[in-house]
Every structure is written in C-alpha cells, then in structure tokens.
Write the structure tokens for this entry.
Amino acid sequence: MKIETKAVHSGYKPEPTTHAVAVPVYQTTAYAFDNTQHGADLFDLKVLGNIYTRIMNPTNDVLEQRLADMEGGAAGLAVSSGQAATTYALLTIAEAGDNFVSMSTLYGGTYNLFAHTFPQIGIEARFADPDNLDGLPGLIDSRTKAVYCESIGNPAGNVLDLEKIADIAHAHGVPVIVDNTVPTPCLCRPFEWGCDIVVHSVTKYISGHGTIIGGAVIDSNKFDWVANKERFKRLNEPDVSYHGVVFTETGLPPYILRARVVPLRNIGAAMAPQNAFLALQGLETLPLRMERICDNTLTVAKHLKDHARVGWVRYAGLEDSPYKALLDKYTGGRASGILSFGIKGGVEAGQKFIDALQLITRLVNIGDAKSLACHPATTTHRQLSEQELAQSGVSTDLVRLSIGIENVEDVIEDIDQALSASS
Ligand SMILES: *Cc1c(COP(=O)(O)O)cnc(C)c1O
C-alpha cells in the first residue's frame, strides 16, 4: 500500500465481534485472564496479550501499527506526549553513567530535557553542530548509546543530513533516533536513510487539529543490538522484572518491547485510548493536509520574502535556502508548515506583529489545521540564555508561523495587515 492508503487502513480491519468499521475506543483499564496460568504466562511474556492499559490497549495498538507502517518500521509504541516518547526512546537503552549525542537544533522542550533533566539522573547529552558533522565522531565513546536529531528542526527549520549522520553513528556502533514530528512520514521517512528509531509528537501534524497531547516511538528493527552486547546490555542480558527474559532472544522487535515493558510499564506515561482514537482520526487525512500545508507555506514564504517590512525569511522550501539541496534529497523538496522570519524593527516590531494578528492564532503549538504564530524567544525558548538561543538557531526577532489548511489568501491578508501594524 502507498502511504495515503496506509493512513486510512493500516492496523485495522472491522473487528470480528461487532464488525465496527471505525476503530473502537477500548475504554478499559484491564483485560480478563482465562485462568491463573494465562495471567502468569502474560506476565512472563510467554504469551502476548493485553494485561493493563498502562502497558497496552487495542485502540492504541491500531495507532502503533499504523504509524509504524507509514514510517516503514516494524513496531511502534504510543505514549502520552512527544516528551514522553523522547524520554522513553533514550531510557530504553541509556542509564546513569551513559551519554548520547544530540544535534544542537532542537525543540525547546527537548533541549531542556537533554540539558537539564537527563543530567539529574546521570545521563549526559553532548551537543553537536548539525551543519558541521566533522565534530560528531569525537563526541562518541564507549558509553554513548545513541545519536539524536530532528529531521527538520523546530523552530530553526534546518534540514539534517540523515544518511550521513546514520553512516557516522553506525561506524561507531550507535543507533540514530530521529524526531520526525515536523516533516511527518508523508514527507520524510528516516528509516529509508538508515536511521533506526523515530519519535513523534503525535500532538502536532499527526493528530492535526490541536485536540490532544500524544507521542510515539517507532522502531525500524534494523539496528543490530546483539553485535554490541556490552554497549546494549539491557537488551542482551536477562531482565529480572520478567523472570530473566532476554529481549533480543524473544523473536520480537527487542527495542520497542523493552520500551513498552520497562520505561512505559514502570514510569507510566501511557496514552489514553480516547487520544489514540483522535490521533487515528487525524492520521486518516494527514497526507491530504500535508500537501495543502506545504503549498500554503511556500506561498506565504515567497510573499514574506518580497515584503518591505520583513528582514529575513527562513524556510527550507525557498530556492535560495542553504538547506534546499538536503530538502530535495530527503523530502522531495517539501518543507512542511513551519516558517520563521524576522521583522524589521526587531523584538518590538515582532511583538506588535503578533498582537495585531486576527485570523492567525497566538499560541505555542504547531501542526494544527489552523494557522498559528509564536515568538519563541519570549515563550517556548524563554528559559534559554542568549548563547543557548544562538546554538538552537533562535534569534530574538524570530517569529515562527505554523501554516494551516485555510485558503492561503486569507492567511496572507492577515499577515499583511499585521505587518502594517508593526511599523
Ligand atoms: C511539540 C514537539 C515535541 C514535544 O511534544 P509534546 O507532544 O508537546 O510533548 C517534540 N518535538 C518536536 C519537534 C515538537 O514540535
């Protein structure tokens, strides 16, 4: 199936009991055991089945399979937020004393998680320059568990050289985790370029209507964890909480299995089945929305570029973007809906612009059907120092737009009147 078909059909056939055509919301906490032996076998992972909705749920299962299919992966795990997805993606393989390398251009929440929260539990994040990968090998050592990056950075809008990053990481025996929230699998599928694990904020384009918080981890199941038993000992050594099961010997994708039965089971940021249902509703139209969003955003970017009040426009879809060549390679030239620009007059003009918007909503979110605007330096990135801001690709005059699926003429009309008001 092609991706548009997968978005509507993967992971679900009308279920045999009721023949319900829409994916049912399995609003249940727990699942009945046939007898005590059945319960024991489930807890030992000897048979697979539903136990408790913190660990698995049939509605979430459809979302997991559908997303995995759309990414070209083998298995998925739905969790309660994008932040939980990133946290569990790393905690599945990293522990106190370990480190990982992250590209420095990150979503603000992810930067805080890496720079401030992981160090509290003894896991070090080392930051690399995504535009100069020469420094990457020197940051990897025997305790490095992964290389992490955003395929298209939010809000920087930079495009990463995924294939090159995967080559470097693999040469050092380390997997690559990609936050693919901004392009979505409709525009970019990191597994096709050798990357190993994908994380998503399902909150954004996938659910697509600004109605839920959700996240997902998808496993390509291509990385060879057994080839480096020492580095990935948690996947290769008997797990005490499962009667000595060795995840790489289960015959199941070991990484996503451990993500489910260790971090998710024990820390517990599970996705509510109602949210999985809403995510599935959104996912059905994701390919359609991404087409419109890419068209609209390119139109807005070109319009802003020619506008006298605008100092600069950053959108990888523009012909003169330094990322255009990478964009052509990794997404076929489509740059998704995040665009940033600087208004002449700096911070003050930027604030006036935001305050004058009438159709475009002032908020911190991306990936909605509605067009959205925010000023990262005073909101999502406000805890960052000036140096950290510069490293993240966020200048103080930067206004971020997330363009929606409206008629683009209405969006441009609102932008123009707000630009006039900013002078
Ligand atoms: C929003 C976002 C996240 C965090 O996701 P939540 O669902 O808000 O927890 C992570 N990465 C990117 C690129 C995001 O835009």
About this structure: The pocket of pyridoxal-5'-phosphate is lined by residues 81-83, 107, 109-110, 150, 154, 179, 181-182, 201, 203-204, 213, 215, 366 (CB under 6 Å).
